[in-house]
Amino acid sequence: MPLNSSTRRQWLVAGSALAAALAASSAIGQGAAPIRIGLIEGLSGPFANAGEAVFRNLLWACERINARGGVRLPAAAGGTRPLELVRFDSKGNTEEALAMLKAALDRGIGVVAQGNSSATAAALIEAIEKHNAREPQRRVLFLNYSAVEPSLTNERCSFWHFRFDAHADMRLAALMEVLREDRAVSSIYLFGQDYSFGQHVLRQARASIAAQRPDVQIVGDELHPLGRVRDFIPYAAKIKASGAAAVLTPNWGNDLTLLVRALREVGSEARLYTFYGNALGAPAAIGDAGVGRVIAVAEWHPNLGGAASDSFRAAFKQRFPLPQDDYVHLRMQAMLEMYAAAVQRAAGTEAADVARALEGLHFDGTALGVPHMATMRAEDHQLQQGLVVSVMERVGSPGVRFDVEGSGYGFRSLKVLPATATRQPHGCRMTRPD
Questions:
Q1: 173-183 pLDDT, tens digit each
Q2: Enclosing H/E stretch for 331
Q3: Which of 175, 110, 117, 171 is nearest to 145 (CA)?
Q4: Which range (12-26, 182-196, 209-223, 396-410) has the least confidence?
Q5: Is 24 buried (19+), middle (13-18) or exposed (0-12) by CB count in 10 A?
Q6: How is the chain split into domains, by residue range?
Q7: DSSP string over 217-248
């Protein structure tokens, strides 16, 4: 049955459709004003490595879009325009992030991106809500690539905020798909960072384990200061002494790297169920001790397989060849591809128009090697996407052709879950502008 025009617009596939449209368009006009995206992130301080890794991903996404001709707009909206990523260093501090938001607004930037810290994301959402109500003539949009505390698209949801990462409950549910079948785990230690995200994950993990693996004993439930611990040996010793067969941790950045290194040093043999154990030094830090034992969840990983996935990885490695720069996340590419598609669809950069254009927009992950399509759910602005749970193995073992960060270790798929399997209900009651 033929689709009506409204349905046809809803089924815009941002990845392939935008690529085809822009490839056919004329080159970016000389001197065309760029569409500036303000990256507000910790680019110095304890999580600088995570911030710089995000910058590389978003810079590459901008470059890929610009290489195809940029974003094609009507002449009245500036014509075909490139994307430009502008850095604002929050130093990993929420107050500094709010100051950087003001700096971005003062420079006339109409879209900001942030992700490393759900507490910071919550503060930015509140500040943007107030700013957009106060100054509707220069409203700003917030693109979130990794702040995954679920309330941000539930009770704290905002028309101006879009999350492109799977939130914590989606990631946890994917890990539980593997833990439920892992009969080697009879006891587990819950360990996380002491802020909104870590607190939520440990609370939800306890409930999920009780419901799905009531035979598993929770032998520890502990939070630690975010970004302030330099020596995790005392924590690791306590985990080992507990006799835990597994550790579940949502830790990220240096807090994860130092934790896994400490667990190796104390000789812990616990399995690690992680949100982010597949990058930023974690595989190299744990070494052989992690083979078959470190489990991670993501929207993509290099060994997912297929020509499109291999090409995607190879292109990133060509742009950033250093082993330590090997941190590529498809969701960050999807975020800017979808933003560019929405700007084109809205025929301009006004925040409310772009937000409405993003609602219901689809991204064809198969174009970059993921066997599923992602959709921006209009009701809560949470991207609905598939997830992959994988386990660390030596490179060259079955299913592991590529390693991570030159470590000699890569990840093999355990579960590939489509968006229909990761979807969660929401409690968003969104206030929309007139």
A1: 999 999 999 99
A2: helix 330-346
A3: 117
A4: 12-26
A5: exposed
A6: 5-166+306-384, 169-298+387-421
A7: EEEEEEEE-TTT-S--HHHHHHHHHHT-SEEE
pLDDT for 86-127, tens place per residue?
A: 999 999 999 999 999 999 999 999 999 999 999 999 999 999
User: Is 5-166+306-384 a domain of CATH 3.40.50.720?
Assistant: no
Closest alpha carbon to 272 in 387, 386, 192, 356: 192
How many residues would you count in the chain?
Answer: 434
pTM: 0.90
Look at residue 146 and give its three-state secondary structure: coil
How does DSSP assign 410-428, residue by residue? EEEEEEEE-HHHH------
Classified as helix, coil or strand, 93 is coil
CATH number given to 169-298+387-421: 3.40.50.2300
Closest CA to 193 of 181, 202, 183: 202
